[in-house]
Here is the input.
Amino acid sequence: MDKREFKITADGSHTLYVEALDETYHSKHGAIQEAVHVFIEAGLNYFNQPSLNVLEIGFGTGLNAFLTLLEAEKTGVEINYTGIEAFPLEEEIIKGLNYTAELNSTDKEKQLFKQLHQVEWESTQKITELFSLNKTKVELEQFETREQFNIIYFDAFGPRVQAEMWTEAIFKNMYNSLAKDGVLVTYCAKGSVKRTLKAVGFEVEPLPGPPGKREMTRAKKL
Ligand SMILES: C[S@@+](CC[C@H](N)C(=O)[O-])C[C@H]1O[C@@H](n2cnc3c(N)ncnc32)[C@H](O)[C@@H]1O
Here is the structure.
């Protein structure tokens, strides 16, 4: 796997820089801020129902899973979370991430962050009463599921560096993996991406982006 280097983003939280791609895992304007805005507020909190199936494309640092778990503890919503990842991070990197410090996490929450990472690949584990996690090590291009998700956190590297993650074939698969009225949310607001989402049947809603970005996208399966 290409080398990952820690960088501090504008809100103080870490991201990882991949020199081979000249790309970071998150917005340099704030990793936590971006994750909360795009995935929690525009994705998770778009729904008001007692249980949700969430699929994340690119589990990476586990930041989105952790924020989702914390939100579930607040709202009481039951979450079945599936994270797929082709290149799991090394333990040394995971240990160095500052998310629990930046979020002022309690000791119990710090332990839960660790537990998310300790779940074996190709297994499912209940982390709290409300949150269970399934981790699958697979390339998105090969990913198949019979599950129907309510939300997809589409958090792949951007189309500039990983065009193969933003194709019609991939979005068709994402569309088929969603339940009716399900949504895919992404930080990306590129015109060509929105057109591809529309081409496979999504209703595309541009939304204000997190600090530093004008727009993000929510795509709904009708
Ligand atoms: C923009 S990063 C976001 C990661 C994560 N959501 C986070 O907040 O840390 C994209 C992630 O997609 C993963 N990835 C890259 N190529 C992939 C592929 N073909 N299939 C699945 N995941 C892939 C990367 O390893 C990385 O973890």
